[in-house]
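FW: tagging you since you asked about this chain on Friday. Here's the raw sequence from the shared folder, copied in full. Didn't touch anything.
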Amino acid sequence: MQRTEREVGAVVGAAVGDALGAPFEFGSPGDFSRRFPGTLGEMCGGGGWDPGEATDDTQMAVLVGESLLDCGGLQLPDIFARFQRWAAGEPKDIGLQTEDVLTSGEPWDMAAALHFQINLRAAGNGSLMRAGTSAVHFAPSGRAATMDAARRIAALTHGDRAAWDGTAALHELVRVALDGHDPLSAIPVTLAEVHPDHRARWAVVLSDGWHPDDATEFRRGLALPRLGPLGAAHHLHVRPGAGCRRRPRRRHGHGGRRHRHACGRGVRSVRDPRTVDRSPARPAAGIRRPDAAHRGPRRTRPPPGSGRDAASYAGHTMTRKSRPLRSPLPQRDGVDAVRLKLPADGAWATVRDHLVERLAPGAEVIDGMLAAGEFVTADGPIGPDAPYAGGQLIWFHRELAPEHPVPFPIGVLYQDEHLVVADKPHFLATTPRGSHITQTALARLRTELGLPELSAAHRLDRLTAGVVMFIVRPDERGRYQTLFSDKAIRKEYEAVAPYHPDLALPRTVTSRIEKVRGVIAASEVAGEPNAESRIELLGHRTVEGHPRVAGHPHVEGHPHVEGHPPTHLGHYRLRPRTGRTHQLRVHMNSLGLPLLGDPVYPDVLDQPAPDDFSRPLQLLATSLEFTDPVTGRNHHFATRRTLQAWDAYEAWLGNPGTTG
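HL: got it, structure written out here
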């Protein structure tokens, strides 16, 4: 078999396998065998799906492939934006977790992580099930590159490393199969690349003789026991190029999602996405584009445990699952209550037992909250002895650590029924993250303006001041956020940094910037550029003092501290074309122009005390300009703030933290 045949088979086989299994996703064990007794079956409809119709996972796989083609490589913001547009079009089906992440209003590099931080569970199998196109695309790049790409793409919607590692393992085993080797022989080497915290669990699932009947983790949609192609190849004895045949003495016909890809993905072999027809007039077969004319019949899932088999749903017109229920608890200080969904398959006798095991505070705190009625369902508070009910939704407010108030007001530049445009001060985070929850622009504006559903269209770093946009109506969020991902909005910044007369300006800086989660500083690395900034000089002058160290007097022994020699300052206009984390700070630093007050570039300094609001970073988002996608109006919003180090350098050096 030629490699191109394997590649075509991998992409097409994944779509076919998913279409074969989708009608049985919410059925009960034995549905398939009852419908096709004694045979391998055939393509059929059911569960709201037409025979052979592309599923949500297949549609997302196509979106990934199209992004890789259109961008000439991996551009995570572009993939996330495509996912968002697809989700906003109300596809026929979409996973609960994926929908929550894509409609959260958070930036592409934070949405899944914040979802996981709150919900604590995010190891769904969606990232694995859409990985066919990316696995083929990155296979020629080798083991390290393909597994790294898999983790990055998975992390867009799944915050749990277990999902990343499962997708990475799939990428690697597909790579081995495409090279014409037996992927089963590569399992030990692949497991060695899995994170140690999850290696043992994956080793059990991939061990010889394991079968889905042996799974101990049965939450619907969980990645671990639903290995798709790995399970098919390993447990149905499928080899590259071979057909599906039954494992002796094991019955087929399990209900649920875990067998959806078994045959199709076991035989797959994938064509390089670069050879796929990308004409927009010819969408992949069975895929319904997210516009009203092609949305097709909607569906609703049968209740878990209802016992209705998938065949009984054939031809049944169904409605897409409803949006998540509104929280019965009001916000606290602009912060939503946490929503938990109890796993469908659980052995806990009471809700209390599950909460004690799942949540960090411990039994004493949980018992106190239950006694005070702080855990609620849509029907009211949960009692200490409430019986466990899988699938039940529970809301509660976390006990938040104290935060130092940021002592600067938020200016409101514009407000209508669609938008709020704010003038954010330095030191105030845009959205809740980490230790900054209530002291954020979003939480404060929700409270001050009485807009509990307000969400952020984009984000400014906590240390950056200036113009930031928020969305009033949740159903319009996607249309405004895509302005940024589609580069349909003009952003300008100003900054104060050293002045170098020998540096030719204006200039455009391009580079590849990578930000590793858990590492404070982003870095420029070799590879295809993913960041572009236009830098212009507005003016320059000479002042007394050193712009870097004088702003951080705790750095002792620095050769420039003694005597504070004269400093040449520059005032710069910055126009980013892309939106990488710390992009402007990184690009300015790469030119030898670190921004005044920057505690990260060129060196990571000791972090100041939480209540130290002195010497703010001299970076200001000065304006946003765009055409409103809802009203059609042309907008131009400009900050009323200025950069203190340029207006009054000595005052900035001695700034006691009285301005934002």
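FW: The radius of gyration is 27 Å.
HL: agreed, and The longest helix spans residues 3-21.
FW: great, closing this out.
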